[in-house]
Amino acid sequence: MAIGPRIINLHSNNSVAAESVETDQLVHERRHANDLAGILAALGPYRAELVQYRTARILSNGNILAAQTGARLTSTKVNRLTDEKIATLALQANAAVMRALQLQIAVLKELLAERTRIDPDS
């Protein structure tokens, strides 16, 4: 079971703490006094699942990066990538693929032009 978002809805005299799994099914939802230690204690049992879920996302991002760019980064470096850097790497990878495809299209056009004769009578 992978844990999803952790939500703490603060009110003036209490807080509602909620923990959900990836499927948006709540595994914990309870009203607590505005006491951070008490809220953290209530959510503590879900910490291992949160760490596993976060680790899975980091590894997934690393695999996507490796597939798109051929670069392998450590989990620490993947975790430190900014959104801007991720977007830049993705665009660079997609642009490289686009250029390679354009070259292949040009080669195919050339081969087709060489092997295809247009009959002026048809």
Label this structure with key terms.
122 residues, alpha+beta, 2 domains, 4 helices, 3 strands
Structure, described:
Strands 1-2-3 form a 3-stranded antiparallel β-sheet. It has 4 helices and 3 strands, in the order βββαααα. Strand 1 (about 5-10) and strand 2 form a beta hairpin. The chain has about 120 residues and is an alpha+beta fold. The model has no long low-confidence stretch (mean pLDDT about 75). It folds into 2 domains: about 5-80, no CATH class; about 80-115.
How would you briefly describe this protein structure?
The chain is α+β, with helices and mostly antiparallel strands. 57% of the residues lie in helices and 20% in strands.
Q: Please give the count of helices.
A: 4
Q: Give start-end ranges of low-pLDDT stretches.
A: none
Which outline best applies? elongated
Helical percent range? 55-70%
How are strands sequenced across the largest beta sheet? Answer: 1-2-3
Helices, strands, pairings?
Layout: E1 3-10, E2 14-21, E3 26-33, H1 36-43, H2 47-69, H3 75-80, H4 83-115
Antiparallel strand pairs: 1-2, 2-3
